[in-house]
Design goal:
- The protein has about 280 residues and is an all-alpha fold.
- The protein is built from 11 helices and no strands.
- The radius of gyration is 27 Å and the shape is flat.
- About 20% of the residues are buried.
């Protein structure tokens, strides 16, 4: 005897179906038409922008060939090294300081928590550009003028460490409270519980966020033009000005496109690293 046919199991509803009804044939046709129209409009705007740039001579080959010169490549390479140096030094100072501030906000006394909390909240609220202007314009009135490198690094460290402190504190508070209670039952002090049990887990959880924070530090380094620090944006502005004056060549579009491409490549690499770290820490 042939076995009776088995009833088909209903397929689980898709996540999208839980939020809204799936479109019917007419809805799908309408979505397809709108998608084609939007694509055509976007391509048309892009073509119009490229045509306008071509009319103004911004796409002329000599303006792009200028960046193939060895002196220009070396100059941009040195500016890239300066940008990466600011990023690495700022991260090396910001992350340990941020962990220390977060630790103090969790474990200090009431007065200490209030002081540290006020500092963290202030540094998260004050724009970094304002801090840079403070070190550029106000600090020299009370003491020696700092080098441009430190006038850029110190504000980055002040703001980034405050953000890192909140990330660390959130990581500790997200852990199961039963671990702290078990450590207390075993006779561990509050400091030992933080150092041996809570802090290592919080640091492990915040590793992907720290890698992602490098992207923010890298982008913040572009504020170096304010203090005349020779990072990528400042180098691009110098190239544009000198080429316009000496060679009567306007290269602002190629300069900014190439600089943006360098930022995109570096940030893409940092984003990929963050995804790898996140996958390994799950």
């Amino acid at each position: 005897m042939s076995s009776p046919p088995t009833a088909r199991r209903p397929r689980p509803a898709a996540d999208a179906g839980l939020l809204f009804d799936e479109p019917g044939p007419r809805g799908r046709r309408r979505i397809a038409v709108v998608s084609v129209v939007v694509t055509v409009v976007v391509l048309g705007l892009l073509a119009a922008a490229l045509h306008q740039l071509a009319v103004q001579g911004q796409l002329a080959y000599p303006k792009w060939r200028y960046f193939l010169g060895q002196s220009v490549v070396r100059y941009l390479g040195a500016a890239l090294d300066s940008t990466l140096l600011v990023t690495v030094v700022s991260a090396a100072l910001s992350f340990p300081l941020g962990v220390a501030l977060g630790w103090a906000r969790l474990g200090a006394g009431r007065c200490g928590r209030a002081v540290v909390g006020a500092w963290i909240d202030a540094m998260r609220a004050v724009p970094m550009l304002l801090l840079i202007y403070f070190f550029l314009l106000a600090v020299p009135n009370f003491g020696p003028t700092l080098p441009p490198f430190w006038m850029l690094v110190i504000p980055i460290v002040m703001c980034t460490s405050a953000t890192t402190a909140e990330v660390f504190r959130s990581g500790v508070l997200a852990l199961d409270r039963g671990q702290s209670e078990a450590a207390t039952a075993l006779g561990l002090s509050r400091g030992q519980t933080m150092r041996l049990i809570l802090a290592p887990q919080a640091l492990r959880l915040m590793l992907p966020t720290l890698v992602t924070q490098l992207v923010t530090i890298l982008k913040d380094s572009s504020l170096g033009y304010v203090v005349s620090y020779a990072e990528l944006m400042y180098a691009g502005n110098v190239l544009i000005s000198s080429t316009r004056q000496n060679q009567h060549l306007d290269i602002y579009l190629p300069a900014y496109v190439i600089i943006a491409a360098l930022y995109v490549v570096i940030n893409w690499g940092l984003g990929a690293l963050a995804r790898v770290v996140e996958a390994r820490t799950r």
